[in-house]
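Question (not urgent): is this output format expected?
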Amino acid sequence: MRRISRITVAGAATASLALALSACGSTSTSGSSDSKGNKGLAIAYDVGGKGDQSFNDAAYAGLEQAKKEFGYQTADLEPTEGETDADKEQRLVSLAKQGYNPVIGVGYAYAGAVKGAAEKFPKTTFGIVDDATINSKNVADLVFSEEQASYLAGVAAARSTKSNVVGFVGGVDIPLIHKFQAGFEQGVKDTNPKVKVLSQYLTQTAEEGGFSSPDKGKTAAEGQIEKKADVVYAAAGLSGQGVIEAAAAKKVWAIGVDSDQYKQEALAKYKDFILTSAMKDVAKAVYNLAKSVEDGKPETGIVRGDLKTGEVSLSDSNPKFADDAELQEAIKTAKEKIISGEIKVKSS
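Got this back:
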């Protein structure tokens, strides 16, 4: 079982903050500060935490790349159950106060916290993944065109189904996940209008566990498979593991999300049933922000990754997917049309 550490909100003193980071199980790594005494990249995880084999782990991969390349000290902190926006802001403030730069909140839930922390530390660069609402001189909004990769996932699903029924499982019923659903459904329908898409959400709010409950994902996928779905796409964070487990148990296809889930060690026993994954390169976005700070030219404003930049894509690790020439040609054609603007993918 994955260990999830818990953060205790620290007091104001720097020594207390440092102690809190150590005591709470933060995986602050060894390294050196730069000549000005600044530390390197720090990230604060979204719901599900490190070990979700998806969104948060992708952010950690970017942190590890920055640590390796720049040789500096990094830190990564877990969320706590039932935490408030004030708790999130305190977490970011504690990192900035200790000299970490940049400091990234992983997930849209950090919007208020990043805005507040950035106002308190105008000389620190902050980043937020999956939110474009913060307009600040020292904040980078790291966002993606998830609907484009999801469209390609829809093409793959429509060409792979034998029952003409496919499923979509969203973690939480919010605009961000609507992008995944909209792109997927459009890709399916444009490829084969006869294919039926079963779509559902696990919860209305993240607090209800939509992104962190594999059991909920498993139950949802089992229900769709009972209704003849033989390809199921999950955009549900940690809950997506349950979707993949259910698909493997019934020997149907699952489509992963965010990271290349075929390659995830924790999902290895299910990989033969993971057709592909609709990826967004959170690792690259996190690393690029760190590099921009290291180079003295911090990214700010909206920084978007899409098919054209290569920061959203479909994985091809599964040989059964990669070696299907007709399927690959269909995906290539769709990708080219999206990049050229011939296909306009819906985001809602």
